[in-house]
Write a structure and sequence with these properties.
Main location: membrane
Number of helices: 4
Transmembrane segments: 56-74, 99-124
Shape: elongated
Order of helices and strands: HHHH
Keywords: Membrane, Transmembrane, Transmembrane helix
Family: Belongs to the CD225/Dispanin family.
InterPro entries: CD225/Dispanin_fam (IPR007593)
Mean pLDDT: 84
Radius of gyration: 36 Å
Length: 126
């Protein structure tokens, strides 16, 4: 069907002059184009937020899984600071603080529960 319509179009337009459109001429630029240079500061322009590394290490000793997550975000704080990523550095610092706090709290609760269960075992078996 499409081939029929195309051949019909060719038959109808046979003998008509071809239409040629010419693009207007653009004025030439005699001056050299301006160069744009992007200056990226190599050193961070803000102070590094607290990485909570000591608290993360304590959380790792008390409750290993949460402490490792806190250490990971502590490391990310310095990486993002070195990359001059202010929002990312402060976000990583907040996450390190949160996970280290949770690790310490969960670890204390865990170890208290372990000691209580051990004491109950001793009392019941005596």
């Amino acid at each position: 069907m499409a081939l029929f319509k195309y051949s019909q179009f060719l038959n109808e337009t046979e003998g008509q002059p071809d239409i040629v459109l010419h693009a207007p001429e653009l004025p030439s630029l005699k001056a050299e184009p301006a160069r744009v240079e992007l200056q990226i500061p190599k050193k961070p322009t803000f102070t590094c937020p607290d990485d909570h590394r000591r608290r993360s290490i304590i959380a790792t000793v008390i409750f290993f899984p949460m402490g490792l997550i806190a250490l990971h975000w502590s490391k990310k704080t310095h990486e993002r600071h070195a990359a001059n990523n202010k929002v990312g550095a402060f976000s990583a610092s907040d996450k390190a603080k949160t996970f280290s706090f949770l690790g310490i709290v969960v670890g204390i609760v865990f170890w208290i529960a372990v000691v209580l269960v051990a004491l109950l075992e001793l009392v019941i078996n005596i």
